[in-house]
Amino acid sequence: MKNRTILLVEDNPDDVKLTLRALEHHNVINEVVVAPDGVEALDYLFSTGKYADRDTHKMPEVVLLDLKLPKIDGLEVLRQLRADERTQLLPVVILTSSKEEQDMIDSYRLGANSYVRKPVDFNEFTEAIRQLKLYWLILNEAPPLKINERS
Questions:
Q1: What is the CATH number of the domain that holds 77?
Q2: Which residue in 25, 47, 81, 148 is deepest, having the highest Cβ count within 10 Å?
Q3: Is 112 among the domain residues?
Q4: Is 95 buried (19+), middle (13-18) or exposed (0-12) by CB count in 10 A?
Q5: How many domains are there within the chain?
Q6: Residue 84 sits in which domain range?
Q7: Is the confidence at residue 109, as pLDDT, over 80?
Q8: Is 5's pLDDT higher than 70?
Q9: pTM
């Protein structure tokens, strides 16, 4: 398995711990970068703010994006990712506790690759993470980062 980064965009410290425990439980060895709000997620992805020195050619394998975030919400983060050539094809999985149907519809309209509701039960949550790992980190073949250079 490629050792590429996972960007976890989550403001709830308990959900961050739970997600990291579930990833560890399923032997995910990828580095996990945690962004606690939408601004920091965009700073990381576009190499601005405290991430100004980050190499933008090294994008995460997948972004696990919560919707209900401070500063800039998850839908706006997704909107900005899809509007930028550097990140428009980046795999984004909405990982949220929102049960609002409109959130799901808006996420897919804005280009989310997947929408997963966080199960409340820890065992169910770790199983959801196992399946995310299997698909997004092992089976899925992401598009090349420099798609325009191949045309």
A1: 3.40.50.2300
A2: 81
A3: yes
A4: buried
A5: 1
A6: 6-140
A7: yes
A8: yes
A9: 0.87
